[in-house]
Design goal:
With 190 residues, the protein is α+β, with helices and mostly antiparallel strands. The protein is 28% helix and 20% strand. The protein is built from 5 helices and 5 strands, in the order E-E-H-E-E-H-H-H-E-H.
Length: 190
């Protein structure tokens, strides 16, 4: 898949454009004739029954699924700008025996030093700030393998938001989350 610059104009904002998208797996057509135009900053929900192809559409945008049609991303004033895509899967999983903490996971992403080296207070503060965005700073020292599904979703969302993506794809983002966090979720994405 190639998410690159397209010829159409989206005015003064970046945009994702999908035209005549069709995805087949073997002989079975999973999704067909999808046309979508989304500007950066817009929130769009894809709604449908199980098996309708929602996750397949996300995987296609991510470049993990072959397709026919056009998927393009543009930023006004920038040529050949590649989309910086953030993705939170439906059910992030880790081995329950993993001794890696939430802090270790973030430190791997934020630092060039191996996680077993002593880390700075500045790095810890940065990780705490990321987790605060998703109301989860209390998870910083918890082992990844002991987190609930909702806690994992929050940590995955915090990690993705850290990269400040142009496009944020969330596959069932509130799955496993308690009702309080579901209310906070819209505030996080603003």
């Amino acid at each position: 898949m190639n998410i690159g610059t397209h010829g159409g104009s989206c005015g003064h904002s970046c945009c994702l454009r999908i035209q005549d998208l069709c995805v087949k797996i073997g002989a079975e057509t999973i999704i067909e004739d999808i046309n979508l135009h989304v500007h950066c900053g817009e929130m769009v929900a894809i709604i449908g029954p199980n098996g309708a192809g929602k996750s397949t559409l996300i995987k296609t945008i991510l470049g993990q699924q072959a397709y026919n049609g056009v998927i393009s991303f543009s930023v006004p004033g920038k040529r050949n700008h590649k989309a910086k895509i953030g993705y939170v899967p439906q059910s992030p999983t880790f081995d329950i025996g993993d001794c890696v903490s939430v802090y270790d996971l973030f430190a791997c992403c934020l630092s060039r030093r191996p996680v077993f080296f002593r880390r700075s207070r500045k790095l810890r503060k940065k990780v705490l700030n990321c987790l605060e965005r998703v109301y989860s700073e209390n998870l910083i020292d918890r082992r990844i393998g002991t987190l609930s599904g909702g806690e994992l979703q929050r940590c995955a969302l915090a990690k993705v938001l850290l990269t400040d993506p142009n496009l944020l794809l969330l596959d069932e983002p509130t799955k496993g989350m308690d009702s309080l966090f579901k209310l906070q979720f819209a505030q996080i994405l603003k």
